[in-house]
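pipeline/complex-builder :: batch 7 item 3
reading input block
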Amino acid sequence: GGMQALAQFVESARAGQAAFTQVVTTPPRQEQAARSKTSSGQFEFQRPGRFRFDYQKPFTQTIVADGTTLWMYDADLDQVTARPQEQALGASPAAIIASATTMQALQKDFELSEEPRRNGQDWVKALPRSKDGQLQSIRIGFAPAASEGGAPQLATLEIVDSFGQQSLITFERFTLKPSLPASRFQFKPPQGASVVMQ
Amino acid sequence: CAHAPSAPEPPASQPAQAGRRFWQGRLALQVESEPPQSYAASFTLSGTPEAGELHLTSPVGSTLALMRWQPGQASLQQGAQTETYASLQDMTARATGAPLPVAALFSWLRGQPQASADWHADLSRVAEGRLYARRLQPLPTAQLKVVFEP
C-alpha cells in the first residue's frame, strides 16, 4: 500500500530525476470562476535536503535547494530570492521527496495515513503538524514498480493549501540514481540579477 | 460622394483594457531597507479598486496572501490569520506584508498613468506585459517589477 511505498521511497531513493507537470487550480470565489494554470519542467533531487525544480514552460523559473539555502530565480523578473532552507521548507511537500531519510523523521513534520488505491496508484495522506496554517493536506501517489522487485515510483503530489488552492504535480520518466553531481544543486545567481536574502 | 473614411480604429486593446477586470502574472517587490527585503510571488488581480481581490501565490503554487476589499471593508488573509481594515488604502498602507500600491496597479496594468506622490511608474512596456515602478516615499525607497499577461 501507500505507506509501504513511501517507506521504501524515503529509505531507499538516494537521488533521481523526472519530468514534471504542475496544474495549480484556484477554487471559484466571489465573482471568479475556478481557474487553473499549467507549468512543466525538470525535477532532480539528492537526499538529504537537495532538490531543484527547473520550470521551463510557460516561463523560466528555477528553484534550487542546496542543503542550506532555498534559491528562487525568475528569469523575466531577473530576480533571485534566497531563504534559509529549513525556514522555507519544514512542512512543505519538497521535504517529503528530498529531505527526510526515515519515516520517523517524516512523521516529525507530518501525520501520515494510508489512503485507498486510486487511478492505479497507492496513496498516503500527509497532514502537516505545524499549525502555521499554510498547507491543509498533501497526498502522495506511488505507481507500481516498473520492473519486478523494483522500487515503487513516485508519481503524484496533490497539495491543497488553507485557501483551497490545489497544486497537482505529476512526474513522468522518474529514474532513480545512486547519486547526482553536487554541481546540480549549487545555484550561482546570474550576472546582473538582483539578489535579496530573506 | 465618397463616404468620409471612418475614424481609424482605436488600437484593438484599448476598449478591452478599459473594462478589463482580471490580470495575472508575477511580481517582485524590493524594499531598499537595511538589509533589503524582497517579495516575489505569482499574482492574480481581479475586480476594481472599489471591490476586488489580489491573490499572491508562491512559485510552487501555495497561497502566500489573499487581499480582498469592497466598499467599507478590506481583509488580508495569510495562512490561518485574517486582518481586517477599513479600506483598501488603509490595508495597503498598514499591512506588514508586501506594501503593494494595489489601487494604482489597476490603472498601470491598463497603461493608464495614475498620479501618485509616492510612486513613479514606467508604463512604456505595458503592451508587452512589463511594468516597473519606484516608490520614492515613504522611505525606504522600493522597486516593483511586474510581468503579466497583457
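note: Chain A has a mean pLDDT of 88.
queue -> next item
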